[in-house]
Amino acid sequence: MKNPNIQEFTKQNLQKFYWPLWFPYPTSWLKALILNLLLSFIIFLLTNPGKVGYQITYLAKSPELFFMLTILLILSPIPTISFTHHLLHLLISRFISEIQAPEIGRIKGLFPGIMSWWEGLYAWLVIAISTLIAAFFLHNDFAII
Q1: pLDDT tens across 84-116, in order?
Q2: Distance between CA atoms of 33 and 48, rounded to whole angstroms?
Q3: What is the pLDDT of residue 87?
Q4: According to the model, what pLDDT value does residue 20 have?
Q5: Which of 28, 61, 125, 144 could form a cystine bridge with 24, CB 3.0-4.6 A?
Q6: Which residues contact 124 (CB under 8 A, 6 or more apart)?
Q7: What is Dmax (Cα atoms) for the chain?
Q8: Helices 63-75 + 26-60 axis angle, to 10
Q9: Distance between CA atoms of 77 and 43, rounded to whole angstroms?
Q10: Between the CA of residue 49 and those of 38, 43, 63, 68, 76, what are the distances in Å?
Q11: Dihedral sign, CA of 51, 52, 58, 64?
Q12: DSSP 8-state class, residue 98
């Protein structure tokens, strides 16, 4: 049995919508809202354990423990985004499977697959690089004339 061409499948689905090309589809707005909520959750996760981790290392007087907790804190958005991506696509595939991307396939189980881990790593890199670029442009010594 021949698999349908993904490009033809997408083209057929896009012909159902009558949105102008310059205006984002409703799914894009939904994804942006979910990304905003996810980023707020990640910021919450990073600020509170950071304070607790600092207090633990201050009481233990152990710089090694401080560096280990700092590294774990820096890398913590990767599993957070991976699990959120997996659970979101699990819900989408169960309830509104017609908007699911065909590349994702059928989501099974509660543990994220390789695609979700890649999305977590990619999102973490985008957040880190965009934060560094924004900090560069907002730095007081950098002046645009």
Answers
A1: 888 888 887 777 777 666 666 677 778 888 888
A2: 23
A3: 84
A4: 73
A5: 28
A6: 75, 77, 78, 81
A7: 65
A8: 170
A9: 9
A10: 17, 10, 17, 13, 10
A11: negative
A12: G
